[in-house]
Amino acid sequence: MTAMTAGVFDSESAADEYGDLRELVDDIAGKFCSAATDNHVVPQRFDAQLWRALDETGLSSLATSADAGAGPTEVAIVLYGLARHAAAVPIAETDLLAKWVATRAGIELTVGPASVAIAVDPANGGSVGTVDAVPWARDCQDVVLVAVGNHATRVGLLGVDVNDLVLNHNLAGEPRDGIETTVSAEQLATIDSSVGRELLTRGAWARCVQVVGALDAAASLTVTHTRERVQFGRSLSAFQAVQHSLAAMAGEIERARSSVDAAVATASAYGFGDERTELAVAVAKIVLGQVVLPVTTTAHQLHGAIGVTREHPLWLFTLRAQSWLDDYGSPRRFAQQLGSLALHCDDPWRFITGDHHGHPAGNESCI
Predict the structure, then answer these.
(1) Mapping DSSP to helix (H, G, I), strand (E, B) and coil, where does residue 285 land?
(2) Cα(69)–Cα(296) distance, rounded to whole angstroms?
(3) Per the confidence metrics, is the pTM higher than 0.70?
(4) How far apart are CA 131 and CA 14, in angstroms?
(5) Is residue 131 a contact partner of residue 119, using CB atoms and an 8 Å limit?
(6) End-to-end distance of the chain based on CA atoms, in angstroms?
(7) What separation in angstroms does the CA of 300 have from each of 78, 105, 232?
(8) What is the pLDDT of residues 233-258, one digit of tens each?
(9) pLDDT of 80 strictly over 50
(10) Cα angle 104-132-153, degrees, rounded to a multiple of 5
(11) Residue 165 forms beta bridges with which residues?
């Protein structure tokens, strides 16, 4: 029951080729996140000390630094490790999204945390209005505006002015601010539409990895609580009903992990812009949509009343998992997309079982 991590996320197993990276992430996150006494407030406060430590070790730019030579597996280990400690920093938004799309558009960012504001491509030369739910906008040096359209992606840089922010946060208390802007289409650089599509894939992929980290943390807290909490003369974990609940929780998390692990492996093999990665991310999102609610519900049930208090750390992970689930596309949206792809394949069974020769009739691929 204690070893609930596996695959590329296993931080408790014997040393492997990524052991040093896992240990570094755990050491940094454990040191600074444990020391963040204000981490239980809503809205969450940006952890400047943790960010400096990540920046000094190169972990804040692992995906975009040519010197790091890191791929999706290394990035996943960092995202997972930080999520497992409820790190209050925009690591995915800065490294995997903002820096990447800025490079593709020829935009130079200042040093420091950054984020991405995703909007609909303005039609007929119109302007982009208020962009909602921008992660950590209030704490970022730069926000990259990405207007996604069917035929092109337009990209520009937004200066973050506190007067232009509509402060808000998600269910977990993480900043999700609105930005009021009047940027027109002519002020944005036009790049290929595939960039916008890949950006959404990268964002959804990152959130899938982070959700698994949050679920593992919630499970670990639950196991510890049921072992230490004594009721009727014995620990909660000695009761058969509790054991069944813990086993069901572990099984659901492992089901989610296998799908996310497949998405990490696919991205490592083919890149984020490949159709096979898009498909793997869609499957991971759908599975997480089935797993997050029962796992977080069980965690709170087994903790009892203490688990819903702000003083207890459980909510930092359960609410993050629930909030991240809908970022960059909800499970329902991905399920509809996957169902449509299967229905348009000339051989749906071969498509579902992973043989991508079952292409849609008259088209080149199933995506």
Answers:
(1) helix
(2) 36
(3) yes
(4) 45
(5) yes
(6) 39
(7) 27, 45, 20
(8) 899 999 999 999 999 999 999 999 99
(9) yes
(10) 25
(11) 179
